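Fold this sequence, please.
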Amino acid sequence: MNTHLIAAQVKKSVNHIRQEGISSFFNILLRRFKGSRSLFAKPDVMHTYRFLKFTPQIQQPDDSLNNSEQTINWYIPPIGKGSGGHLNIFRFMQHLENQGFTNRVIIVEDDSNLSVAKVKSTILEWFSLDNVDVYYINAPIPSAAVSIATSWQTAYAVNNIGAKTHKCYFVQDYEPWFYPAGTEYALAEQTYRFGFHGFTAGSWLSSLLEEQFGMQATALGFSYDRALYKPCSTPERGAAKRVFFYVRPPTARRAFDLGVMVLAELAKRIPDLTVVMAGWDVHHYALPFACEHAGLQNPDQLAKLYSSCDAALVLSMTNLSLLPLEIMACGVPVVSNRADYTEWLLNDDIAMLAEPTVDALAGALEKVLLAPELSLRIRENAFAFAASASWATEGDKMARRLQYILSGPLSSSEPQGLQK
């Protein structure tokens, strides 16, 4: 029996109860018992996939387009603390509000015990957005000129809308790759054929969706929060080396197991090495190198943590997250795997890229750690590259595209009026 794993689960449960209350905790347990993979009840496939039939009830009069409004209904999954996907959604939402758009949040969930007021306070606390109305998918929803899906599950709700609205899709990753070939893979892939206009996280995604699905897409670049991510002074470490490793074992695309093997090999080559792990609690793992467990950190703690390291290993088997750019803004060299979905942002001038093998990635880290001139060149190039990025520029790009969409007719895949 792994007592560390049990202790970690207990700690996680206690923290959730303290933050959200006992009723929220039991509601999560109930949903898991009802799930199609539950060990405690008969699997209920229809309950698990009920979101496919979610059909928003649009309030009357349905006149947003006729009145030339700049209103947007964002259909989002339930909010989770530390969710980078939600952070990006609310970041663009805030910028669009500054450009004159009115945003609403539609939570695509029909069995939450959290009140609308609680969700709004959570959005304010976690994402600093306080001027947004919130609705659940099973409540009447105001008419909007634009309706934006933000995940493959929410895309079905937007596709089912029968009211007059321009349908768009905020795509942050190629979500079929989150699953093995099967039901979820097929259902996720199908959403790219719905005819929505896409706003994608980077050019790799926009090219993929256009080439494989004929989906019109606007690529949005990455930036970072300059108030949070910047170099911090840290104590002198001498010859000892520190490598930051972003860990999230439940998320297969972040390649935790590969990273552990890479760092085990690196520790053989550089014995005086400490690996700083953050993103998830991995105390219960047997790890063959010296570790500093940082767990899930608040954003305002990360710059100091990154700056305390000599290099960072950031692996991604699908689209990159914001993490590489945030680390580069703190003056730390990034080592990552070479692939189309990483090289749209990273290149050999601003990062150390290697094939996704143990030897290649360990060798890349070794070079960065033991070659001061190489490390300095990468750090300086990466810092300048990060400094050139701008959320305002990307937000303006999205605003202009939305205004262009609103200036034209509904596409053939969008309803021209209320369904009978």
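The chain has two domains: 51-223+393-407, 241-389. The domain at 241-389 is CATH 3.40.50.2000 (Rossmann fold).
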